[in-house]
Structure formats: structure tokens, C-alpha cells
Design goal:
The structure is a homotetramer of 347-residue chains.
Chain A: E1 2-7, H1 12-22, E2 27-33, H2 42-45, E3 57-58, E4 70-73, H3 79-89, E5 93-96, H4 106-113, E6 127-128, H5 131-139, E7 143-145, H6 149-162, E8 174-181, H7 195-198, E9 203-204, H8 212-224, E10 230-237, E11 243-250, H9 260-267, E12 274-276, E13 294-299, E14 306-313, H10 317-331
Parallel strand pairs in A: 1-2, 1-4, 2-3, 4-5, 5-7, 6-7, 8-10, 12-13
Antiparallel strand pairs in A: 8-11, 9-10, 11-14, 13-14
Chain lengths: 347, 347, 347, 347
């Protein structure tokens, strides 16, 4: 039984980790920290866990995580970089769901996140936790930086196009028009996230530049081996969970005869959590609600020169906590799907 | 492995049965019928099941269900009564999620449902599938009539009050103000259920008399051994799943000193799927979303003579498919919680 | 043109006042104060007002409201009582949308609102702003305390029953099961009001005792001339605007022959903003969305001894800002409906 | 007072026409037809109109519309083309909200709408009802074909870029990623539009080709005088009203120095219903909810070569009924804004 610690368990990624690990046959949460909620029963804050998790939040200052096999950071950016070195030194593996270990170039991190990076020596070792791209490295990693929710959808959506050794589409001008449910903004009391403000409403945000952009261009570049240009516009959907990415790429003249449906099906043929749907499909976010599946459909409207790729995931599961558990399974030699086989609750 | 047949699997209770049984360690769906969808892959209609259920809908006229161990009817009222006799004769157990076997008095059934009852000889044998009330009878039943979604909430909410041998509240004047998500109306194309009509909106319906009323008064009478008077007003909530029942009962003068919190806690102490919350709680439907739990809180505002009992359940799980699987588990000697341990997905 | 000042215009009642008065033919907002937003263009905060209101928030310390004809307080409780005396002395009329002048008994106010009342000498003069009950007094009032949103629905829903000189129902045991959209909680950043928390969810709150209770029992007592007993349970609906009150009253034996439909129709026959719907109706909140109408339907299920009265209103309009404008119209001799004739936007 | 007839008043565009014209100072609905609802009071179907519209639906076969000044068709495609000739011959002006008179090329119409065009001789005369583009022609038109909801957003969003005489962006590869509330699908009972299916969910649809595509490319071509290439992907948002178009265009090298913010502001400077928001804005659909405003924001992420234009409108108002009233005002010499000055109801 893997002993799991969670740092910062009062947000949505933290509570989703709790939900998943409480149902995991091979792992158990033994400690969960919160600066503000020391001593509070977890199930008091999250009544869905009543009877399923008998644990209290504990003050991080008073909590030793060195006995854990793995510690998840479900914290604001900056916490994991401060605590990871000591945990790693104690032989604990670390999975960070924040951005501290996503971006390889510390200067890029510092520009987009507005804080100095205090553990730059770990950036080289840290593995980017996208199993469909980095599976082998994740298996042996001590330190994993989990992708953001949007970057997971964008990278897995574009990957088959970019991974072919030669360019199939205009890689300088990719467009990712992404839409997310509000839980992606986290469990924080902000006016714009109130039901009275955000429901029966739709808007774009972060058009000038969203933090998930540099992470995604880094990942797409790693997949293709070439630099890519990406326009990424996120939008806020009046729903709780789910991301749909609508990805646009202009097919190069020399690739007009490629069978993109087959390309995608082959690329993801053996993946347990990526489902390439039949041609003509329009995946719905609810088809992955509360599950770790990501579904993709490939379209080429009017048989023209534009490819439209639709990607759906649950931002809290495949986009965060589920993918983190998937990485944990790989790191500890468990079945990759262990504890992640919940079928989407739909309707 | 229990071989399960489902008659009428294209509605919400049917698809919820599919979701639950596909994750059940001891049962497997071997046949699912639909008059209109013969030959269609189930996962085509319900993409959430892609990769998890390899089965096609089959025409009921062409499908033998006699090899099943148990057949669930997730059909309109009237279908189960027509087909149950032959199945029972073939040794198949039957669990009906419609109303055919809920009401003991055929005349009452016929009045409220507007159809003759063609299997009245089975009404005596049929067991009402409310485990917290009828557990022993369910274990040995061949034929189970599952409670409606509202009746489950109302009966489990009032039961501790009524089961004490003597009246604690004015049983002639119970009030159940109930609120349900729209999935309770079924998967049918009706104007009033459109998102454009039902969202950002709230209304009562069925005020003059809802079919779940006679079933509930029958059940409450069976619990108390006395006849009860109930006002039941259902409302439509702009959400997908969930029922909240707000139950009002006037405390009798001789019961003013009863500790109702303790009464409820004791009554449900050993129940795996009924959670009596601490005093002062206000249960939320999302705390049971997509799970088989039902949560109760007991209030006595101003220490006055009115008891207010709050009950939440997922209408499709504890109010329908989950409770039906719970009955199946009992009927086949499995652990009662088998396949029903999903934690509510919240948020 | 009536010169209107608004104190505290950044909440929902404030912004709704702005929307209504910007479309009012006989009134104009000349000043709007906010402690935090001094100098900010109002339309910057509320883009719906772009091009329709050319006004900036101003610091209350720097703003003289003595030139206004009327000042609306859309503030937290306690502000109006502090500022009303000076305004009244300057000849300005005052309409308070908070609770400062709702409750006649300062001790009751202090108990429920947890603050001392600093303008008790005005409580006698203050008129309760429910036009259908107090129209004549409002016309000549200098100071009006507007009803809360729930109290408006409950009082107008029960009033015809209680106003008959003799009791028709058991007035000691009225029940008001009320449901409100989240805007009723105000424009404040609280976790429980986030879309991710409150949508696809339903719950009761304030069961132990809500501040709108003493105001309502006071109002009902004033209508009937007798003391009344009321159980009031509010619920949070995942929608923006709207209240539905489901009111229950037990008919007295001597009133079993009363034609309650006719009683209600006659009572509200001449009211421009109260619509008694035909027998059998189930009013929907969207039928009054963004309008000042309140609709009522009267039911007597099974011709029994329980009356069920359904009341819908928009909590921000008839339950707050619209009713306040209605009072302003009365106070200044305008047509009562002036500026309040918007038809509900439905769907 | 303009006498208005409405053919097909039971859908959302029809009911929205009723709402707007009932509040219009210069027009009055004198007849409204419905094949199925002959004799039904309109306010019975649309309770929001109770007390505001005293009119019954009438059978079209029994209803003479020749006395009307103008007839609106809020019908399925194909009805207006059948009835317009006779009405025009009788001197009645016709405004069609369906697609019959949108597309100039009958062959294109017939390909996309799957029906023959029976009034091709009127296609030349019909004016496309987009006032910001065709104001002069609308003033003198007898027959107006109203734009679709998406085409209104796309054309007004791209128009300033295309109307400059020379190309500023790659006009062969425009992308319009559009998102609409469900009312855009009309008031029809379809499974996919149920709240239980469409809420807490997001999906694309019509990716292979949506009927609004040929209309939009025709319109954009008319604006620019050049042919344009457009990828248009519509999405379904779990909200009632509103469209957001996220438009992408690649800036040509020779136009990299253009100040697009100023270009847009100048283009729409005098328009009463188009609001170019300040640089950096992200318009929300609720800021135009139930109003005739359309708001635009212009972005150029990272000062790169991609322009991102955000456009919001209420699909039922500026995207349908409101714009139709705007055309009526022009056709009859009324103030263009008459009856259309409702401020968006937000929240």
C-alpha cells in the first residue's frame, strides 16, 4: 500500500486526489496538510468523503511527510519548489500539480509566474508528467511536474500531427481555442466565479497571454523537435468540470493526402486513457466527466486545408489529479489504470 | 458472475444501470433490449461507455432473457407486468424500476397510472425494494418493485419518526416539499425539459397530485402501522441529478422531549447507504452526486414544535439504479455495497 | 426629473437600481457612492450600462447627497441608520433596501442583526415599503424601509388569507418553504456561491433561523391583526434570479367552503404588479425574470385541508430594486408603474 | 402605429418579437398565426406576457395578413418564400427571420437547405437585413431577409478588417470559433437540448459544415469585394441566450503597423447597437443579455501576426428578433433604436 501525503488539500485538485486515492486499491492518504485548517476533519470540509476518509488536515509545520512514499503538491505555485528538495533527500518521491516543475527554462518560468525559482537544480531531473509522451521517464522519476489542464488537452490533441518527423501542418500558426469549466480556476472566492456572475454567461479571458502558453509551446516543441507558434485563447464555460479544445492547423500542401483519422488512431492505439473517436464524432465533455479519459475527434471541414481537432477531458482528472495518479501508478510499478477506471457519470 | 439483462436501456435509469454494472465486480450485462435501437452499439448512444461495454441493443422480440440470472426493467410503466410472469416461470429474478410492482392495491395503481394491472397475482409476492425497510424480504425475493425516487427520499426521511410504535408527530399532516433535478423526468424530448426552458428557472409541478403520493403513503403506513396523511409537492430544479426533500412534521405534545437527532442516528446506525449528518448540517445534493449514499439532517427550528428533516439522494442512484443494484446484491448474497462504493464526484 | 442618489452601488441591488432608473422616464441617478471605487466609471464595473449611464462612483466622504430628491441605500445593514437622519433633516427622502428600518422593535432588530440600532427614534416614522399593504402610507413617507426579498414573497402570498378579519387557516403553524437564486446572497466573494460549488446542486440553509423570519412574522401579524407562527426554510437554487415560495396553511374547519381562488383574485384585482394566475397554474420564476411582476397560484391538493400557495418574484426586482422604485413612484406622485414595465425576458 | 403580423409565433424568435413589440411605442402586433395553436391565448403559452398582450394565435388558413403593414416570418425555412409574394402584392412589407431570402444564389440555398426555392424572382430584390452594412437599402426595402445569429456576429466582427479596400489579413483563411446558448437551436423538443443532456456539458457541432457558412462567406465577400475563405465551428454552451464569436485572422506583412483598435472604433463610431470596447476587454454574453447591443473587443496576443476579435450578441435579439425590429424601424422611418433600448439584465 503506497503511503501518500498531500500538501494543500483544500482546493479542487486536492479534493479530487482525495476522491481518487480513497478509491485506489493500492494507495492510501496518510497525511494531508493545510495551513488554515489544522485539526479539521477532511470530511467536514468535503462531505462527499464522509465515511470514506478518516483523516484530519494537519499544519504543515507540524507534519512530517518523510514517511510517505510519495507526496503530491496541490498547492499554489512556489510551494513545491521550496519543499521538494528535502523530501527527495529523504527518499520521498514528489509529484507537483502546480507549475514549479513544468517549465525547463527558469527564466521563462520567472517571467510568466512572477517569482524566482528556488530549485533550479532540480529542473533538469524533473520529468514532465504526460504519460502518453513521457511514459518511460515517468516510470523512473523521483520528481514529476504535472502538466496544466489546458496543456494536457492541447499537447495530446496536436501530438500526432507533430510527432511524424516532418511537418504536416503549418507549425508556426497553430490555434487552440479552448473552453473550460469554472473549476479550472480553482476553489477560490472571486467575484467573477460566482454562479450569479458566471452562469448563463460565456467569455474569453487571458487573451493577451495565459501561463499555459509557454508550457505548451515547450511541450509541442519537444514532441516535434521543431519550434512551434501557437495562439491559445481560453474561455470560461458555465459548467463545473471539463475542457474542450478546438484545435486548428493548416495542412501543408505536401500533406493534403494524409489520412489524419488513421494517423490519430494509430498514434493512440494502445493508450488506456486516450480515445480517438470515429470520424465525424463531436466529443462532449460530459462523456469524460469525473473520469480519466480524454477523447479526440479529427475533422477536416469541406475536405479543405484546415484540420480541426476536438479534444475533451475532465480538467480535474486527466487534466490534474487523475493524471497525477496515473503517474504515481507508473512510478510505483502498479497497473497504469489502477484506481482510475471510474466511468464518466453521464448524464 | 451474475448474468444481467436490462429491458429498456435507453433511458436514464437504464444507462445508469449500465454504468454501475459495468463497474460491478460480480455482475455483467449480457443483454439489453430496445425496440427502436436494435443492433446499435450501446457505446454509440452513451459514449461514456466506450471501451467499457461491448454490447449492442437488441430487439426484445428477438432476445431471450431466460438465460439471465436477473432482469431489470428500466421501461415505462406496464412493460414489466407483461413480461415478468414468463421470466419468473423460467427461474429468472426480476427487478422492476417502474411502478408496476410498487403499489399493493391494484385499484390504486389503476387509478393513478391509468392502466389495468395485468399481473395482479404477483402483487402479493412482489417485495418493495427499500432495503432499509425490507432487507430480509428482499434477500429471498424473486420479484422486486423498486421505489420511486421521491418515495425513497420521503420514506427514509420520515421512517425513524414513524417506526417507534407510537406517534411522535401529527401523522395526519405530514408535508414533503421535494425538489428534483431534471433527470428525474426521464430521457424524453419534452419542451419543458429543454435547457432553454428549465435552466435559470424554478417551478413546482404536479401539485394537484403526483403518482409518487400513493406509493409513499402506502410505504409510510407500512412503517408506522397507522394511516398517514401526506402533502407532497414536487419541484423542478435546474440541475441534472439530485433530490432534496424538505420534510415537515408537527411534534406531538407528548414527544416534545424526544432527542430526534439521536433517534435518527440510532435508527440508521448500521446502514451502509444512509448517513445521518451531525446536528445543524444542511446536506447538499452534490455530496451524493453519482453515488448511492442518502444523507439526512434533522432540524428543529427555534426549538419549536416543528421538525424539519432534510434528505438528499441522487435520484438516479439511490433513487433508482443504485438501489436496484443494492437489491440485486441482497438477492444474490453478495456484499450489499458491492459495485456501489463510488464516492460522489464533487465539485 | 427626480434626482436620485444611491449609496453603495456595487452590489446586485445597487446595479439593479441603476438598470431600472437608467430606463426610468422621470428619474435620473445623479450620484452613486462607493468607498472602494471612488472615481471608477460605473460602466466599467457593469458593462451592460456602457453608453447608458455616464457616471462615476464617488467617495461617500466627498459626496453631498443633500441635493438629491431621494437617496436609496443599497448598503450592508447599519449604514442607512447612520446617514438617514441628516438626509431627512436636509429634506431628502430616504429609501433603505437593507434591514435598518424594516423591524419596528429595536430589540428584535438588535437580536437578529447583531448590532445596536442608532436611529430608533425614526422607527416609528419609517414606513414598510410593501405597496400592496401600505400604499397610502408610502405616498406620504419621508423614510421607507424596503421589505426583504423572501418577506415580500411570503407576505404577499399569505396576505389574502390573513386579511379577512377572521382566521381561515391555522395561523399558528404556517410553513414557507422558499427557494431563491444565488443573487439573493449578494455580490460577495464566498466559496459557497461559486458556480463550481453552487451549480448542479441544491441545499437548504439558515434552517435554524433566518433574519427574514422576524420581519415576516411582524408583517403577517400587521396584516391579520393576530400573532402568527411561521416556519420558514430557505433554499439555494442554482440559478441567478428568482424566488419561489411554496406556502402551506392548514384550512380551519369553518373555512373549508371558502373559494380561495376567488379570494385571491379579488384581493389583488387592482394591483399592477401582482398576478393571480388561473386555478391549476404553476408559476415559473422565469415568467418574472428581470420584471417587477409577482405571480401567485393557489392550490388545494386533493380538495383536502391544506392550502398550497405558490409565489414567484424576481428577488432583485419585486424583491428589492423594483419595489423600491415602485415606492419612489408613489412617494413622488408618479404613475406607480413608471419605469417598471419591462416584460420578463423568457427564455 | 405600425400594424404587425407574425407568422409562426410559438418559437423563440417569435416570442422574442412579441416581447419586443409589446414594449414598442410605435408598433403593435395585430395577428399571430400558428397552425397548431389556433384559438389559444398567446399569454397562456408565454406567461411572461400575461397582462401585456391580449391576443390569440390564429390558424394561418383563416387569417388575413393583408391589413398588416409588415409581416414577420418566424417560421421554419420555406414558409416565407411561399407566402411573401402574395403579401408583397397586397402592399405588405415582409421581414423573414428564416433563411429563405438570405442567400442570393438559389443553387447555394438549395444545396444547403435541401429544398427548392419557390420565389427565386424575389431574391434579387430582397435586402439582407444587416443595418450596419445595408442601412440605406433596408430603408426602402419591401422584403428583408434577416441574417442568421452566427452570421451577424461573424460579419460584424470581421467587417472592419474587410471593408478597407485592400486586404489587411489573410482573407483565404479566416477562422470563426463560435459558441452559442441553446436557444439558438430553437424551441423544439430534441434530446440533445434537454437540460439533463446539455447542461454541465460543452461540445462542438456541425463541424463538417453549418448552414450559416455560405451566408457568411457571401456577406463577407460583399463587404470586401473579394472572395473569402472561412472555417466556422459552432459550439453549444450550457446557457440560454448569447453568442460569443472568437475570430482569428492572420495579419498580412504589409498591415503589421495598422492600429486595429482605432480601425474598429472608427468603423462603428456612429452605430447605436455596436459597441467597440476599450483595448484589452473581454466582452461577456451577459452584458448584452436580452438587449440589442453587440459588443466587440480587438486583441493581438503578444503583438504577433494574429488578430483575435471577440464578438458578443444575444442570439435572439441582435441575432434575430431585435435586429428584425431594427430593420422595421428603418423601413418605416422610425428612430432606429425605437423599442430596442432595453438595458441588458445582468446579473
Amino acid at each position: 500500500m503506497i503511503k501518500v501525503g498531500i500538501v494543500g488539500g483544500t482546493g479542487y485538485t486536492g479534493s479530487e486526489l482525495l476522491r481518487l486515492i480513497a478509491q485506489h486499491p493500492g494507495a492510501q492518504v496518510v497525511a494531508i496538510t493545510s495551513r488554515n485548517e489544522d485539526g479539521l476533519e477532511v470530511a467536514k470540509m468535503f462531505p462527499a468523503l464522509r465515511g470514506r476518509l478518516n483523516l484530519k488536515f494537519s499544519d504543515p509545520a507540524k507534519t512530517s511527510l518523510a514517511d510517505c512514499d510519495v507526496v503530491f503538491f496541490a498547492t499554489p505555485h512556489g510551494v513545491a519548489m521550496a519543499q521538494a528538495p528535502a523530501l527527495l533527500a529523504a527518499g520521498v518521491r514528489v509529484i507537483d500539480l502546480a507549475a514549479d516543475f513544468r517549465i525547463k527554462d527558469a527564466a521563462v518560468f520567472e517571467k510568466w509566474y512572477g517569482m524566482a525559482h528556488s530549485a533550479q537544480d532540480l529542473l533538469g531531473e524533473a520529468v514532465y508528467g504526460l504519460p502518453e509522451v513521457n511514459r518511460a521517464a515517468i516510470r523512473t522519476a523521483r520528481l514529476v511536474g504535472m502538466p496544466g489542464c489546458y496543456p494536457t488537452a492541447m499537447q495530446l490533441g496536436f501530438a500526432p500531427l507533430l510527432a511524424q518527423g516532418h511537418a504536416l501542418v503549418d507549425e508556426s500558426h497553430l490555434i487552440a481555442d479552448c473552453k473550460s469549466g469554472v473549476s479550472g480556476a480553482g476553489r477560490k472566492a472571486e467575484l467573477g466565479l460566482l454562479l450569479a456572475e458566471a452562469s448563463d454567461n460565456f467569455k474569453a479571458y487571458g487573451v493577451a497571454g495565459h501561463r499555459h502558453l509557454p508550457e505548451t509551446t515547450q511541450g509541442l516543441g519537444a514532441i516535434s523537435g521543431r519550434s512551434v507558434g501557437l495562439n491559445f485563447v481560453p474561455h470560461l464555460v458555465p459548467m463545473i468540470r471539463g475542457i474542450l479544445g478546438t484545435l486548428y492547423a493548416r495542412i501543408l500542401p505536401e500533406a493534403m493526402d494524409v489520412d489524419f483519422q488513421t494517423l490519430y488512431e494509430r498514434h493512440y492505439h494502445d493508450e488506456p486513457f486516450v480515445d480517438v473517436m470515429p470520424a465525424g464524432s463531436t466529443p462532449e465533455t460530459r462523456s469524460v466527466r469525473a473520469s480519466n479519459m480524454l477523447r479526440i475527434a479529427v475533422h477536416r471541414p469541406g475536405a479543405g486545408d484546415t484540420l480541426v481537432v476536438l479534444v475533451v477531458e475532465d480538467n480535474l482528472v486527466k487534466g490534474a489529479a487523475g493524471q497525477a495518479v496515473q503517474c504515481m501508478n507508473l512510478m510505483f510499478g502498479l497497473a497504469e489504470t489502477s484506481g482510475l477506471e471510474q466511468i464518466a457519470a453521464s448524464p
